[in-house]
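Subject: Roadblock/LAMTOR2 domain-containing protein

B.,
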Amino acid sequence: MTELLPEEAAERLVSTCRTTVGDNARSVTFFSRTDHEQLYLRDDLEQDADLMAFIGTERQDFAMASDGYSGTELGEYRYTLRVFENGYAVRIDGRDKGVLVTSDGMELRDFNHLASAVSATLEEWEGEI
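Prediction pasted inline below.
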């Protein structure tokens, strides 16, 4: 299924996101500092979208967020939520990798559940991905 992740890890990430977000899930993309792979894309969406700009922005923002917010009174960084006219993009970061999930409308608590579930999955696979 993927070159960046063991197949079982890729399937688990997609399953975790789809279970948490349900039919609102639009896409799931795993990325490292140097590469990325789209693991899921809903059938009704454009199948040929260029992810490079999205992932490039997320990589750059990851470095700024982890450095810029380190040691603040806000506490530990959890995830980034971007709001668009037609949906949302949620970036959940691991140590040197992350997951970008796009979705249709959701409640804020749903984003918190998604971030917690994906973070736990990334931690579980930490030694293998």
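DSSP finds three helices and five strands in the chain.

T.
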